[in-house]
Design a protein that fits this description.
Blueprint: H1 3-19, H2 23-35, E1 41-52, E2 55-67, E3 72-76, H3 83-91, E4 98-106, E5 109-110, H4 116-125, E6 127-130, H5 134-137, H6 144-156, H7 160-173, H8 179-183, H9 192-204, E7 210-214, H10 222-239, E8 242-247, H11 250-253, E9 259-264, E10 267-273, H12 274-279, H13 284-291, E11 306-307, E12 342-343, E13 350-351, E14 367-368, E15 381-393, E16 399-411, H14 426-433, E17 441-446, E18 449-450, H15 456-463, H16 483-493, H17 495-498, H18 503-512, H19 517-520, H20 530-542
Helix pairs in contact: 1-2, 1-7, 6-7, 7-9, 9-10, 16-20, 18-20
The structure holds iron/sulfur cluster.
């Protein structure tokens, strides 16, 4: 079934429910008609604050924008810039510690003033969200089919046959093969890309007019990322939904968003039509984000360009421009007052900077990691992998080759990229290097020591010098532990042999990954964005040096 026929069918379900006289849905119909013509979403002076032990944390600060029907807005910024809190404020799905001021109007109606029962119908039927991590956003103990049919029964009042038929239709819509079989499966039986397609199917189930995708591809392989982004864009065009696409990567929104808003320190730093922004960016932070995209044609692509320093502390933000401590264009007056979001000479282009970059002016942003990788004197091989083979039993006397005859060297200070689609064996190769699992055959030499023949005790000791950072930061952190305990875990395990627990060391590595130890040490993983969680994982991996 094509997209259009699926869409028509979705409308059929809505219409049939309306004629059955469901009161809530009927009021939604009036709501749709009332707003026709104007922007679908009108956000004005939105400010969101959280009560914390350190004081009020202003995560979103005076954000104003509108979104038209069928339009895609890309919201871009690094972790902690306020983009996820912004969309959760729009949907009004924040914890009780949050307070929201300003207004969010959807088709002319203020979402914040809707009665709770109506708000619940609003989520799903009017605006829906695709979350960052499909593994944690899906219920692990419920079959996929039930997770899709639940909102159909609740919001659209469908019976079992109707909701099952619609679920099948949705799975076909999002490109899932063998949909009948998938409906009976649990999330852990599906690949990451397939799980995210299920997340999209759930979001589209009740035919929303606004789809919010919050970093929908961060937890996925690069090839699957493109498929999911293209799928979202295709569905958005076909179903004529408005879409807000949140990402930390300017490259993701290029070619997929009509308009881009760059956020920094809870505020919009720059906004423009996508083409205008890439042609004529005015804010040093936008410029820095663009420079941080690795380009294969540049010799320096061997190193990632990061923006030095860390995002501002939103409990005590720096005076004046929040980007000033990281901006080489900064002048004294930048720290006197917050720069307002002013129009440029191109329609729809606004930026908040007193001294925007010009081709004739040197300056820029403190970038880290520029230039080529520096190899250690002598360029010694630190890791040598030869003819690595990993087999897994597949039942009935059959084995599956996950890795077959892989060999490579890595020198000290060198970065080796292993690239390939899901299932090609790259993760198994990485794990087999750590002897998780033990390879079936082949050799892994780390600093001259053959790893495959080490005793368990020697292997544990050697692993203190090799660490892994996992793909999914959220599920690889213990949700019950504080950040300082998570990062210090390796130190406390090895305390008797390589030094006692060191608060200084924990602070050092948190600082190195761009997190302020005074702010993050006593918080738990759920209080961070996906990007910040990954920084915590990196700190944990680095703590043993
Ligand atoms: S030049 Fe000044 S106002 Fe502009 S981003 Fe840099 S610090 Fe902020």
């Amino acid at each position: 079934m094509g997209l259009r026929s699926a869409y028509a069918s979705a409308h059929y379900w809505c219409s049939s429910r309306h004629t059955l006289g469901d009161r809530t849905v009927a009021s939604t119909t009036n709501f749709r008609a009332m707003g026709a013509g104007g922007p679908i979403l009108d956000v004005e002076h939105l400010t969101t604050e959280f009560r914390t032990t350190r004081g009020l944390l202003r995560a979103v600060d005076d954000v104003t924008f509108t979104l038209d029907r069928g339009e895609t807005l890309g919201i871009v910024g690094e972790s902690g810039s306020g983009k996820s809190v912004l969309v959760r404020s729009i949907m009004n799905i924040l914890p009780r510690t949050a307070s929201i001021t300003g207004s969010v109007k959807f088709e002319g109606r203020d979402v914040g003033t809707l009665p709770k029962a109506e708000q619940r119908h609003f989520w799903g039927t009017q605006m829906a969200m695709v979350f960052q991590d499909p593994m944690t956003s899906l219920n692990p103990v419920k079959r996929v089919g039930h997770q899709i049919t639940d909102p159909l029964k609740y919001h659209m009042k469908m019976n079992r046959e109707e909701s099952n038929a619609r679920a099948l239709e949705l799975l076909r819509l999002v490109g899932i093969p063998e949909p009948e079989r998938r409906l009976r499966q649990y999330p852990h039986e599906l690949s990451g890309g397939m799980r995210q397609r299920i997340g999209i199917a759930i979001a589209l189930a009740c035919n929303p007019k606004l789809l919010i995708a919050d970093e929908p591809t961060t937890a996925l392989d690069v090839t699957v990322q493109k498929q999911i982004l293209d799928l979202l864009k295709g569905l958005q065009r076909e179903l004529h939904m408005a879409m807000i696409l949140i990402t930390h990567d300017l490259g993701v929104v290029a070619g997929r968003a009509d308009r881009i808003a760059v956020m920094y320190g809870g505020r919009v730093a720059e906004t423009a039509d996508t083409r205008v922004l890439f042609r004529n960016m005015k804010h040093p932070y936008t410029e820095a984000l663009l420079n941080s995209i690795p380009r294969i044609e540049h010799e320096s692509h061997t190193r990632l360009h990061a923006i030095s320093g860390r995002p501002p502390d939103m409990v005590n933000p720096p005076p004046g421009c929040r980007f000033a401590p990281r901006c080489l264009y900064a002048q004294e007056s930048c720290t006197a007052e917050l720069p307002p979001l002013l129009p440029s000479n191109e329609p729809g282009h606004r930026f908040a900077c007193y001294f925007p970059p010009r081709p004739d002016r040197s300056g820029g942003v403190l970038m880290a990691g520029t230039g080529k990788a520096h190899l250690r004197d002598g360029d010694d091989v630190l890791l040598r992998v030869e003819n690595l083979v990993v087999e897994f039993p597949a039942g009935r006397n059959r084995d599956v080759y996950a890795v077959s005859g892989v060999s490579f060297d890595v020198k000290a200070g060198e970065t080796l990229g292993l690239v390939g689609e899901s299932g090609c064996g790259k993760s198994t190769t990485g794990r087999a290097v750590m002897q998780l699992p033990h390879p079936t055959s082949g050799s892994v030499k780390f600093d001259g020591v053959e790893m495959t023949t080490l005793s368990s005790e020697d292997l544990r000791r050697t692993r203190t010098r090799m660490q892994m950072i996992f793909q999914d930061p959220i599920s690889s952190l213990n949700p019950r532990r504080k950040v300082k305990d998570i990062v210090a875990e390796g130190l406390s395990i090895w305390g008797s042999t390589i030094g006692t627990f060191s608060k200084t060391r924990v602070n050092e590595v948190l600082d190195a990954v761009g997190l302020d130890p005074d702010i993050v040490a006593d918080r738990r993983p759920h209080q961070f964005s996906g990007g910040q969680c990954q920084r915590i994982c990196i700190a944990r991996a680095l703590v043993l040096d």
